[in-house]
Backbone:
């Protein structure tokens, strides 16, 4: 087959649809969707013809809308054909790519595919187009569920579909939670309803068979961007199904009755998601892992995208091996067995399938995560969460025990792309106050946009919002732009996903920033301060919203910039926009005091030390002598009297192989009390500075 024939083609798709060659049409459509997925929404690498007038670099948006409209037309013709029949495997593939079908329609004038759904409407009363009755034909139900998109205006009875076909209903729920932009009232409302209804149902499924499991991580991660207090409950149900799927596939947990040592140190195995010098996880979590090497032999496991700087964080780095999730997990398990890993640690979880599946296995006596993606795991196999003390809003948001470190225990690393110098832009009395918003598409929602609209309407000065958007490209961007315009009209500019230096230039031209909520910023705040800007944030109980408060206080910003409610957020943003002198004074304070340096300095040792403490506790609980481990001398911890056998290459103990029971200690250790006290002192200091 020639290279030209391998290229996904709208032309071939159109020919197959017109000829009613259903299998060829579906395969070509899936190839096109797969290419869009690989391009993160881009349409490059897809053969299609368009009017010559659109082959203009200044008309890329118009060309994208043309492409989307043409694809929507062809999908309409294909799925409106009642003779089209889909296999179970074909349906699963369509659900895996449904988010791109949704974006094709959302980017086009169609907005949604409700006109296709009407083909399967058996309701004799057509007066209400949003009231649809479905036949009992299984094939019709499959096609309906595939084409039921986030922007649909049709009310759907999930219980009725579950009763007819639980796996099909679950697949649709997976698909509706998978888009990276769920910001409109219609789409956000659907996901919110699913997050309330779905967990109980999902937990009933025996395994992941015939489900679009390739998008499981989207279900797991995207719930964080909802507003409900119980939004993470879907993780617990998904974990149960994943665990059953692994066990029925032959998975056996590692025997953790043996821990080993390398160069005299216990071994910590670290499973990575995204970790290279330009990535935020490297910026926030590399220093603490380097410091942990004082006590542990660190083995990193990751993909080929981990660059030299990322690999050098560890004593040893291994490229993960295997083509399937099961093979990759087996590789991680073999490594943990070979080295007798004492600690299994993931600095982030939620962005990759491997880490989520790994969180449902036992690979080491002590298993912990950090909050590279801030949210609980709801996993019975994860004992601990590593987090800076001032980032915690409410411990009730976590199923794990928190290892609360001093606020400077995870000092950040400047971005490899950060500018060497900045020429600050301080406008004394601007006619229009430019307000920057650094946000990925996932953080946008109708509540946040309503707050921005209120800021615009109440401010006595003219404001203009500049959205410096991450992940908004290709067929995604026209949809996101329309959403923003629907709330803010000409008072906003939606900038598509840009290289870092262009993104920074957008923010550089702004007078102030406002942070999205409920999912706030970490690196966006660092970028803000790099440019000598100040802004408003909204805090809350979840770490992903409380981080903003913690960072603002570390930077010495006044507490009135931290809002507890949406009303406060609007009121304080208006104040910052209207009062030019006050805003400029705050900016000069940040610039003159080099507030940014606060985030890049600190003591990264506590994470390693607290892991030593927890390993000593585990060894003591199981009467294991670890006195000849290198960390025992540096930690100063005592070994229990009953542990008299010197540790050899491996240390044996009888332990249950299933999920390790979680710690139920009610009293705080002296170290923990000291950390809590220091956090309070820091908060007081911050108030004085403000």
Residues:
């Amino acid at each position: 087959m020639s290279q030209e024939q391998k290229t996904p083609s709208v032309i071939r798709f159109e020919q197959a649809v017109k000829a009613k060659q259903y299998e060829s049409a579906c395969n070509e459509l899936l190839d096109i969707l797969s290419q869009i997925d690989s391009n993160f929404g881009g349409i490059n690498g897809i053969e299609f013809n368009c009017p010559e007038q659109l082959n203009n670099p200044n008309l890329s948006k118009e060309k994208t809308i043309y492409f989307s409209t043409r694809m929507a037309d062809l999908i309409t013709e294909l799925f409106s054909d009642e003779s089209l029949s889909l296999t179970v495997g074909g349906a699963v593939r369509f659900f895996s790519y449904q988010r791109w079908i949704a974006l094709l329609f959302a980017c086009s004038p169609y907005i949604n595919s409700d006109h296709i759904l009407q083909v399967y409407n058996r309701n004799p009363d057509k007066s209400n187009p949003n009231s649809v009755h479905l036949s009992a034909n299984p094939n019709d139900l499959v096609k309906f569920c595939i084409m039921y998109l986030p922007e649909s205006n049709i009310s759907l009875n999930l219980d009725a579909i579950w009763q007819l076909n639980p796996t099909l209903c679950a697949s649709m729920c997976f698909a509706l939670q998978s888009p990276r932009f769920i910001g409109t009232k219609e789409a956000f409302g659907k996901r919110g309803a699913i997050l309330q209804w779905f967990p109980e149902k999902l937990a009933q499924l025996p395994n992941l068979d015939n489900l679009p499991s390739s998008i499981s991580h989207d279900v797991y991660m995207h719930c964080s961007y909802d507003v409900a207090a119980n939004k993470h409950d879907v993780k617990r149900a998904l974990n149960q199904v994943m665990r059953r799927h692994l066990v029925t596939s032959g998975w056996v947990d590692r025997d953790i009755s043996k821990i080993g040592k390398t160069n005299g140190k216990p071994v910590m195995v670290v499973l990575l998601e995204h970790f290279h010098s330009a990535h935020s996880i490297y910026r926030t979590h590399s220093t603490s892992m380097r410091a942990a090497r004082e006590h542990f032999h660190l083995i990193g496991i990751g993909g080929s995208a981990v660059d030299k700087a990322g690999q050098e964080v560890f004593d040893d780095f291994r490229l993960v091996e295997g083509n399937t999730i099961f093979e990759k997990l087996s590789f991680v398990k073999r490594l943990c067995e070979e080295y007798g890993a004492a600690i299994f640690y993931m600095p982030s979880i939620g962005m990759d399938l491997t880490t989520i599946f790994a969180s449902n296995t036992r690979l080491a006596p002590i298993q912990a995560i950090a909050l590279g993606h801030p949210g609980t795991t709801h996993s019975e196999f994860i004992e601990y969460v590593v987090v800076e003390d001032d980032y915690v809003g409410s411990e009730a948001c976590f199923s794990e025990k928190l290892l609360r470190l001093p606020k400077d225990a995870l000092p950040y690393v400047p971005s490899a792309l950060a500018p060497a110098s900045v020429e600050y832009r301080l406008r004394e009395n601007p006619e229009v106050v430019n307000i920057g918003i650094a946000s990925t598409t996932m953080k946008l929602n109708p509540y946040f946009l309503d707050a921005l609209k209120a800021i615009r309407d109440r401010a006595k000065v003219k404001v203009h919002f500049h959205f410096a958007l991450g992940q908004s490209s290709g067929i995604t961007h026209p949809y996101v732009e329309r959403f923003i315009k629907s709330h803010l009209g000409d008072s906003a500019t939606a900038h598509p996903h840009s290289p870092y230096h262009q993104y920074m230039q957008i923010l550089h031209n702004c007078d102030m920033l406002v942070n999205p909520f409920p999912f706030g910023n970490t690196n966006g705040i660092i970028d803000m301060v790099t440019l000598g800007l100040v802004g408003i944030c909204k805090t809350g109980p979840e770490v992903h919203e409380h981080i903003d408060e913690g960072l603002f206080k570390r930077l010495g910003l006044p507490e009135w910039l931290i809002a507890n409610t949406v009303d406060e957020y609007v009121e304080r943003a208006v104040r910052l926009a209207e009062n030019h002198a006050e805003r400029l004074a705050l900016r000069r304070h940040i610039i003159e005091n080099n507030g940014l340096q606060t985030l890049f300095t600190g003591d990264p040792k506590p994470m390693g030390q607290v892991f030593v403490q927890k390993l000593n506790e585990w060894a003591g609980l199981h009467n294991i002598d670890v006195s000849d481990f290198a960390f025992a001398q540096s930690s100063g911890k005592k070994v229990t009297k009953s542990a008299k056998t010197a540790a050899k290459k491996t240390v044996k103990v009888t332990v249950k192989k299933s999920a390790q029971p979680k710690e139920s200690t009610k009293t705080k250790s002296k170290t923990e009390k000291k950390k809590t006290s220091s956090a309070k002192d820091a908060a007081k200091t911050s108030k004085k500075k403000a």
